Amino acid sequence: MLASELRKKFLEFFKSRGHTVVPSSSLIPDDPSVLLTTAGMQQFKKYYTGEADPIKDFGSKNTASIQKSFRTSDIDEVGDDSHLTFFEMLGNFSFGGYFKKEAIKLSKDFFDSINLGIDYVTVFEGDSDTPFDEESYKIWQSLGIKDVRKSGREDNFWGPTGAEGPCGPTTEVYINGIEIWNIVFNQYYKQKNRKLEKLKTPGVDTGMGLERLAMVSQGKKNIFETDLFAPYFELLPEELPERAKRIIIDHLRGSVFLIADGVRPSNKEAGYILRRILRRIFVYEHQNKMPAHILEGVLHDMAHKYGEFYPELARAGEIIRDEYREEREKFQKALDKGLRALGDAKKLTGQEAFNIYQSFGLSPEIIQELKPFSKDEFDKAKREHLSVSAKGAEKKFGGHGLLLDTGELKAANEEELKKVTRLHTATHLLQAALRKVLGEEVKQAGSDITAERTRFDFTFDRKLTDEEIKKVEGLVNLAVNKKYQVKMKEMALEDALKLGALHFFKEKYPQKVKVYSIGDLKADPPEIFSRELCGGPHVKNTSEIGQFKILKQEAVGAGLRRIRATVD
Q: pLDDT digit string (tens) for 404-428?
């Protein structure tokens, strides 16, 4: 069965059994505690904790999805028979709708529906902290699965081992000796004293990798022989080593999805992950003297094929190609210099490897593949460098570091703080102006403000015309020239939303929030230009902002635009 058929069968199966099919969330998660989306349950966390109501949002306590996922922990392992960075996670979820009996039966019924037989399953064997999951054991046996194996906490228990928090046993399904489906039963809450309390609303969270499912369904020896990968291998030069082919295809696939979701190559966070895997591709391309059109062709085919199920990839095809080419161009000179710096020696010291990494941007794993070196020595050189850098920063900023760094706003001293405050208030006006010119479909998707400029990301599906840019800029400056008041009022989150206060949809807000209103607030009724939830610094009157100027606009992903602007 082709992967496209498996996706369709999975969603149709659960939809017919009362589950609401929910589209994949972005690889850039709402949860600020994680860098990238690594599992299907991430977008549903607030429904397990009770922060959100699944009936209100989905019309059901049960959902199913196919989630785009990316795990950085496996980057160094890519190239073997099973490890990937990007993968697709099939899952069904229940937030108090059903529990063990129904979840296990659904799993068995799904495999029956696609003619796959279960070899064996595992259940939690219990330990001194948590009892044996006898219920799951008996349910599997009642369904005719004779080989039910007991396994320990490491494999069959989800949750904190010593800390406080929700937790529960898992049961895993094996086909052809491979773990295919993991079903988590979130049924306990572990207290600080290690005592377990049963949750009032137990939940079900399952995950099954499409790549592994395709492998067993198609009778292949490894995931790379499936139709998810094999067509792209045929486009690569035959003489390339198998490991190199696997790394190239995996990294290209991950890059396509990251770029489509708005990630851009950079030296921090998700952007660094993208840059790291792209540059690894470019090294293989360079070493094997591959013409540029080969991998660009693979990239195009991936965006087209996966775009049939993930339309954001089809929409971002041109952006994906442009970002790929731009990063290759940036890296080419550094790569040439870096390869020359490696010299003729058969191996490097850790310090030499770090110097090349620091000077030319070749990642440690790339250098290791070209010339071996001691990882411990490399890490020591890196720690020493970071220590020196930290002392330099301390000296530069008088021992206090940045005066302001909220993640969104950054200022090194009082002068920069004043500029950042003006730019921050201007960003409120910018969002309001964009919505007035382009419509209420515009929503904030991120911002970053320094003393030099504001950078504002927003949802919109096309390039703004010159006339629209002019109108937006003019509206902001009109608000500045009208000398509008800027007033803050604390209120309940519910009341703020009723007032129509704009908010960043990825942000989690407390029950009591600060609402900033900008406009002629003394008029009857008040003339509101902008109203937002916010906790940052603001001017008291828009006349303090100065002349607002849009510097440039650009695309940052499918359906996402970015404006850079400044104030004089």
A: 555 557 777 777 888 889 999 999 9
Which carries the bigger pLDDT value, residue 332 or residue 111? 111
pLDDT tier at 160 (50, 70, 90 boundaries)? low
User: DSSP characters for 424-491?
Assistant: HHHHHHHHHHHHHHH-TT--EEEEEE-SS-EEEEEE-SSPPPHHHHHHHHHHHHHHHHTT-EEEEEEE
Angstrom distance (rounded) from CA 174 to CA 163: 30
Domain hosting residue 481, numbered range: 411-567
Average pLDDT of the segment spanning 293-313: 95
The average confidence (pLDDT) of the chain is 88
Mean pLDDT of 48-76: 91
Please indicate, yes or no, if residue 262 is contained in any of the structural domains. Answer: yes
Of 342, 364, 384, at which residue does a domain stop? 342
DSSP 19: P
Last residue of a domain, which of 309, 326, 342? 342
505 band by pLDDT with thresholds 50, 70 and 90: low
Domains held by the chain: number: 3
- Same domain? 163 vs 297: no
φ, ψ for residue 427, nearest 5 deg? -65, -35
User: What is the sign of the dihedral through the CA atoms of 77, 80, 83 and 85?
Assistant: positive
Assess whether 93 and 175 both reside in one domain.
yes
539: nearest Cα among 549, 530, 552: 530
Q: How far is CA 471 from the centre of its chain?
A: 34
Are 234 and 210 contained in the same domain? no
Of the pLDDT bands very low, low, confident and very high (cuts 50, 70, 90), residue 387 is low
User: Which residue, 493, 470, 438, is CA-closest to 549?
Assistant: 470
**Which segment of 73-77, 231-235, 253-257 scores lowest on mean pLDDT?**
73-77
Of 59-68, 127-136, 379-388, 471-480, the poorest mean pLDDT is in 379-388
pLDDT of residue 390: 46
Please work out, in degrees rounded to the nearest 5, the angle formed at the alpha carbon of residue 46 by the alpha carbons of 44 and 52.
110
Instruction: Tell me the torsion sign for CA atoms 520, 521, 525, 530.
Output: positive
What does the block give as tokens for 188?
């306990």
Distance between CA atoms of residues 433 and 197, nearest Å = 51
Is residue 568 within 8 Å of residue 549, measured between CB atoms?
A: yes
CA-to-CA distance for 56 and 29, rounded, in angstroms?
A: 22
> Cβ(532)–Cβ(503) under 8 Å?
yes
In degrees, rounded to 5, the angle at the alpha carbon of residue 549 between the alpha carbons of residues 545 and 552 is 140
Write the CATH number for 415.
3.30.980.10
* Rounded Cα–Cα distance for residues 246 and 81 (Å): 9
Which amino acid is located at 57 in the chain? D
Cut 0.90: pTM above it? no
- Do 89 and 39 meet the contact criterion of CB atoms below 8 Å apart? yes
Average the pLDDT over 174-188 and give the result.
Answer: 94
Q: Distance (Å, rounded) from C-alpha 64 to C-alpha 95? A: 12
Find the largest Cα–Cα distance for the chain.
80
Stated length of the chain:
568
Tokens representing 153 are 């906490």
Structure-block tokens of residue 349:
């010291």
335-347 per-position pLDDT tens digit: 888 888 888 778 8
199 with 270, same domain: the answer is no
- Among the listed residues 437, 442, 439, the one whose alpha carbon sits nearest the alpha carbon of residue 467: 437
